[in-house]
Amino acid sequence: MRKSRLNYRRCKKILSIVMLLSFLKSPAFGEPPTVPPPNLSEGGTRLYSDSEIDLLIDEISEIALEAIEQAAAEAARAAALAAVEREAGALREAERWRLEAETARKNGIRNMILSGLVCLIGGFVAGIAINSN
Protein backbone atom coordinates (compact mmCIF):
# COMPACT_ATOMS: atom_id res chain seq x y z
CA MET A 1 0.00 0.00 0.00
CA ARG A 2 2.79 2.37 0.91
CA LYS A 3 4.62 1.57 -2.29
CA SER A 4 1.62 2.47 -4.49
CA ARG A 5 1.20 5.81 -2.70
CA LEU A 6 4.81 6.68 -3.51
CA ASN A 7 4.16 5.91 -7.16
CA TYR A 8 1.11 8.20 -7.13
CA ARG A 9 3.12 10.99 -5.49
CA ARG A 10 5.75 10.75 -8.22
CA CYS A 11 3.04 10.76 -10.86
CA LYS A 12 1.42 13.82 -9.28
CA LYS A 13 4.76 15.64 -9.22
CA ILE A 14 5.49 14.84 -12.84
CA LEU A 15 1.99 15.85 -13.92
CA SER A 16 2.18 19.17 -12.07
CA ILE A 17 5.60 19.95 -13.59
CA VAL A 18 4.29 19.24 -17.09
CA MET A 19 1.25 21.46 -16.50
CA LEU A 20 3.41 24.30 -15.24
CA LEU A 21 5.76 24.00 -18.20
CA SER A 22 2.83 24.16 -20.59
CA PHE A 23 1.94 27.65 -19.28
CA LEU A 24 5.36 29.06 -20.18
CA LYS A 25 5.60 31.29 -23.25
CA SER A 26 7.95 28.99 -25.20
CA PRO A 27 6.63 28.08 -28.67
CA ALA A 28 5.45 24.54 -29.15
CA PHE A 29 6.43 22.40 -32.11
CA GLY A 30 3.18 22.95 -34.03
CA GLU A 31 2.94 26.73 -33.53
CA PRO A 32 3.80 29.06 -36.41
CA PRO A 33 6.76 31.38 -35.89
CA THR A 34 5.83 34.74 -34.39
CA VAL A 35 8.60 36.64 -36.20
CA PRO A 36 8.31 36.88 -39.99
CA PRO A 37 11.26 35.67 -42.04
CA PRO A 38 13.75 38.42 -42.93
CA ASN A 39 13.17 38.26 -46.71
CA LEU A 40 9.51 39.33 -46.45
CA SER A 41 8.29 42.90 -46.86
CA GLU A 42 6.02 44.67 -44.38
CA GLY A 43 2.93 43.34 -46.14
CA GLY A 44 4.09 39.76 -45.59
CA THR A 45 4.93 38.99 -49.19
CA ARG A 46 8.19 39.11 -51.06
CA LEU A 47 8.24 41.25 -54.15
CA TYR A 48 10.08 39.84 -57.16
CA SER A 49 11.34 41.88 -60.06
CA ASP A 50 10.46 41.02 -63.66
CA SER A 51 13.94 39.66 -64.33
CA GLU A 52 13.75 37.42 -61.25
CA ILE A 53 10.37 36.11 -62.37
CA ASP A 54 11.74 35.43 -65.87
CA LEU A 55 14.73 33.60 -64.38
CA LEU A 56 12.47 31.54 -62.14
CA ILE A 57 10.20 30.68 -65.08
CA ASP A 58 13.22 29.66 -67.16
CA GLU A 59 14.59 27.49 -64.37
CA ILE A 60 11.23 25.83 -63.76
CA SER A 61 10.80 25.28 -67.50
CA GLU A 62 14.23 23.65 -67.79
CA ILE A 63 13.54 21.42 -64.80
CA ALA A 64 10.12 20.50 -66.20
CA LEU A 65 11.58 19.65 -69.63
CA GLU A 66 14.26 17.49 -68.03
CA ALA A 67 11.62 15.71 -65.97
CA ILE A 68 9.46 15.17 -69.06
CA GLU A 69 12.42 13.81 -71.02
CA GLN A 70 13.38 11.52 -68.16
CA ALA A 71 9.80 10.27 -67.85
CA ALA A 72 9.64 9.68 -71.61
CA ALA A 73 12.92 7.76 -71.52
CA GLU A 74 11.68 5.63 -68.62
CA ALA A 75 8.40 4.97 -70.44
CA ALA A 76 10.30 3.94 -73.59
CA ARG A 77 12.51 1.62 -71.52
CA ALA A 78 9.47 0.12 -69.85
CA ALA A 79 7.75 -0.41 -73.22
CA ALA A 80 10.87 -2.03 -74.67
CA LEU A 81 11.22 -4.25 -71.61
CA ALA A 82 7.56 -5.27 -71.86
CA ALA A 83 8.03 -6.13 -75.56
CA VAL A 84 11.13 -8.20 -74.75
CA GLU A 85 9.27 -10.00 -71.97
CA ARG A 86 6.34 -10.76 -74.31
CA GLU A 87 8.74 -12.06 -76.95
CA ALA A 88 10.53 -14.23 -74.38
CA GLY A 89 7.18 -15.62 -73.24
CA ALA A 90 6.22 -16.39 -76.84
CA LEU A 91 9.56 -18.14 -77.42
CA ARG A 92 9.13 -20.21 -74.25
CA GLU A 93 5.63 -21.18 -75.36
CA ALA A 94 6.86 -22.12 -78.86
CA GLU A 95 9.65 -24.23 -77.35
CA ARG A 96 7.15 -25.99 -75.10
CA TRP A 97 4.88 -26.71 -78.07
CA ARG A 98 7.86 -28.01 -80.08
CA LEU A 99 8.85 -30.36 -77.26
CA GLU A 100 5.25 -31.58 -76.91
CA ALA A 101 5.04 -32.22 -80.66
CA GLU A 102 8.35 -34.10 -80.60
CA THR A 103 7.22 -36.19 -77.67
CA ALA A 104 3.86 -36.90 -79.34
CA ARG A 105 5.61 -37.90 -82.57
CA LYS A 106 7.96 -40.26 -80.72
CA ASN A 107 5.05 -41.73 -78.77
CA GLY A 108 3.05 -42.11 -82.00
CA ILE A 109 5.88 -43.98 -83.72
CA ARG A 110 6.34 -46.23 -80.69
CA ASN A 111 2.58 -46.88 -80.52
CA MET A 112 2.48 -47.74 -84.24
CA ILE A 113 5.37 -50.20 -83.85
CA LEU A 114 3.71 -51.81 -80.81
CA SER A 115 0.34 -52.10 -82.55
CA GLY A 116 2.08 -53.60 -85.61
CA LEU A 117 3.81 -56.16 -83.42
CA VAL A 118 0.56 -56.99 -81.60
CA CYS A 119 -1.23 -57.44 -84.94
CA LEU A 120 1.61 -59.59 -86.31
CA ILE A 121 1.69 -61.80 -83.22
CA GLY A 122 -2.12 -61.94 -83.19
CA GLY A 123 -2.08 -63.01 -86.84
CA PHE A 124 0.48 -65.73 -86.15
CA VAL A 125 -1.58 -66.99 -83.20
CA ALA A 126 -4.78 -66.92 -85.25
CA GLY A 127 -3.03 -68.71 -88.14
CA ILE A 128 -1.63 -71.39 -85.90
CA ALA A 129 -5.01 -71.85 -84.22
CA ILE A 130 -6.78 -72.19 -87.58
CA ASN A 131 -4.16 -74.58 -89.02
CA SER A 132 -4.12 -76.83 -85.96
CA ASN A 133 -7.88 -77.49 -86.17
Major β-sheet annotation: none
Q: Give the overall average pLDDT.
A: 80
Question: What is the chains' assembly state?
Answer: single chain
Contiguous helical run count: 2
The secondary structure category is mainly alpha
Low-confidence stretches: none
Radius of gyration: 45 Å
What is the helix content? over 70%
Q: For the terminal residues, how far apart are their CA atoms?
A: 116 Å
Order of helices and strands: HH
Strand-residue proportion: under 5%
Question: Can you walk me through this structure?
Answer:
With 133 residues, this protein is an all-alpha fold. The chain has 2 helices and no strands. The chain is elongated and about 125 Å long.
Task: Produce the secondary structure layout.
Elements: H1 2-22, H2 50-132
Quick rundown:
78% of the residues lie in helices and 0% in strands. It has 133 residues and is mainly α.
Question: Main attributes?
Answer:
133 residues; mainly alpha; 78% helix; 0% strand
